[in-house]
Amino acid sequence: MPMSKTTFRAKHVIYNRNGISGRPFWTVLFEYEEEGDRMPNMVALVPTDAKLDGPDVECFVVDADRPSLNWRGDRFFPQVRAAIKAHRKTA
């Protein structure tokens, strides 16, 4: 059985802060495609104090076009983490 093709493309990586004393977080807007199902506006939220390495995952993902669809953050965390790390190197 052939493996399904998946693609992940980060469009924007943004640092956010929730007010003056709120918990800061990263927002990653990305598109994802798997087996022909294209999701062009996925949003991942990752608190800045979340571990970017290791097994513990704190990543929340929703489809901006279909907000009632939530996704397991650990499904996208490796790609989201890579996008955050790449952004931090260039910022």
Number of domains: 1
Please work out how many helical segments DSSP would assign.
Answer: 1
Taking the sheet with the most strands, its summary is: 5 strands, antiparallel
Uncertain runs = none
| Mean pLDDT level | 86
Order of helices and strands: EEEEEH
Strand order, main sheet: write it out: 1-2-3-4-5
Number of strands: 5
Q: What percentage of residues falls in helices of 4 or more residues?
A: 10-25%
In short:
This protein has 91 residues and is of the alpha+beta class.
Structural key phrases:
91 residues; 1 helix; alpha+beta; 5-stranded antiparallel beta sheet
Structure explained in plain terms:
This protein has 91 residues and is an alpha+beta fold. The protein has one domain. Helix content is 20%, strand content 46%. The protein has one helix at 73-90; strands spanning 6-16, 25-34, 37-47, 60-63, 66-71. Strands 1-2-3-4-5 form a five-stranded antiparallel β-sheet, with helices on one face. Strand 4 (60-63) and strand 5 (66-71) form a beta hairpin. The radius of gyration is 14 Å and the shape is globular.
